[in-house]
């Protein structure tokens, strides 16, 4: 069987919610992963044969994808901000919108450093860190900064710790519940707090793909319909105690609640800037005092 045959089988047998081009990309990623070849090699050598062992692995991957399991979970890895992360069912698969949040933080820090050299002293906390994608990507780009990640899930923190090591970075991970108003890291103050907290309302479940609903951790995704901004309220209160007076918060948000999330933060004394993602949706907020 050749690379080209594998592509044809994937295109014909993947579930219908994968469009043809997406199915081709998935076949390419699976072949790259199993046969240890680059994307360009794969594209230029569609007539190369796979071994029987590789063919068995590629069909096993296809079988799991047909059950709806996301590709990243099947391959146990995901790309984020040009880095490779280990993922499993205890962590959310890092999303491209979150790469935009990281990019915004880095642009902001570099702009500030141009005015005053502050990077050495920079301390950052990422709340709801999951796979650790945000703090690890920040640490790779701000090697002098002291960076921490917080999550309620010990399994997620285990994966995040592995990801920090995998990417040669030192990040301090802390277990804690941001919805516990007594949770504190006194006397620590951070220059930057980032968060991509759970923000999908229960009623949005019906519009979601089965592969997200059935496989990604619900504690990472969902908030009650009656209190969709619950995490932002607690993050704002935590920031009042733990953000340096000149510090900034960078948040990923539900596209439907941009104005409401800004209003919540402003009611707590923060100034805000709302930013759209590359698809034109309200997706990020910067807040400062
Ligand atoms: C949307 S995921 C974001 C994961 C990662 N930061 C990313 O961008 O891919 C939200 C994360 O918040 C964590 N989380 C949920 N409830 C929490 C709580 N009460 N306190 C702290 N972390 C919580 C989940 O375990 C999950 O890892």
Please write the string of helix (H) and strand (E) elements: HHHHHEEHEHEHEEEHHEHEHEE
CATH superfamily of the largest domain: Vaccinia Virus protein VP39
What is the CATH T-level topology of the largest domain? Answer: Rossmann fold
| Low-pLDDT residue spans | none
**Number of separate strands:** 11
**Overall form:** elongated
Regarding CATH, which class of the largest domain?
A: Alpha Beta
- Beta-strand share of residues: 15-25%
Mean pLDDT: 95
**Percentage of residues in helical conformation:** 40-55%
SSE class: alpha/beta
Q: Quickly count the helices.
A: 12
Query: Which small-molecule species are bound to the chains here?
Result: S-adenosylmethionine
Distance between the termini: 61 Å
GO biological process, one term: methylation
Enzyme class: transferase
Keywords: Methyltransferase, S-adenosyl-L-methionine, Transferase
Protein name: peptide chain release factor N(5)-glutamine methyltransferase
């Amino acid at each position: 069987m050749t690379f080209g045959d594998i592509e044809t089988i994937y295109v014909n047998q993947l579930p219908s919610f994968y469009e043809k081009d997406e199915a081709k990309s998935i076949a390419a990623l699976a072949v790259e992963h199993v046969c240890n070849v680059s994307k360009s090699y794969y594209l230029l050598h569609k007539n190369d044969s796979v071994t029987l062992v590789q063919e068995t692995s590629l069909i096993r991957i296809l079988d799991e994808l047909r059950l709806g399991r996301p590709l990243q979970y099947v391959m146990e890895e995901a790309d984020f901000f040009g880095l490779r992360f280990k993922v499993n069912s205890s962590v959310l698969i890092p999303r491209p919108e979150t790469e935009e949040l990281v990019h915004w933080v880095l642009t902001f820090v570099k702009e500030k450093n141009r005015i005053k050299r502050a990077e050495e002293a920079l301390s950052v906390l990422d709340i709801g860190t999951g796979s650790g994608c945000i703090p690890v990507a920040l640490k790779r780009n701000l090697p002098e900064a002291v960076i921490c990640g917080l999550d309620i899930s010990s399994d997620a923190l285990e994966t995040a710790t592995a990801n920090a090591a995998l990417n040669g970075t030192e990040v301090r991970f802390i277990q804690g519940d941001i919805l516990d108003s007594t949770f504190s890291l006194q006397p620590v103050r951070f220059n930057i707090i980032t968060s991509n907290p759970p923000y999908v309302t229960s009623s949005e479940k019906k519009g979601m793909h089965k592969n997200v609903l059935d496989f990604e951790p619900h504690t990472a995704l969902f908030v009650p319909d009656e209190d969709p901004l619950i995490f932002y309220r607690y993050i704002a209160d935590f920031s009042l105690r733990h953000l340096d007076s000149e510090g900034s918060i960078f948040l990923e948000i539900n596209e439907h609640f941009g104005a409401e999330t800004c209003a919540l933060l402003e009611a707590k004394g923060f100034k805000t800037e709302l930013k759209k993602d590359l698809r034109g949706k309200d997706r990020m907020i910067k807040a400062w005092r």
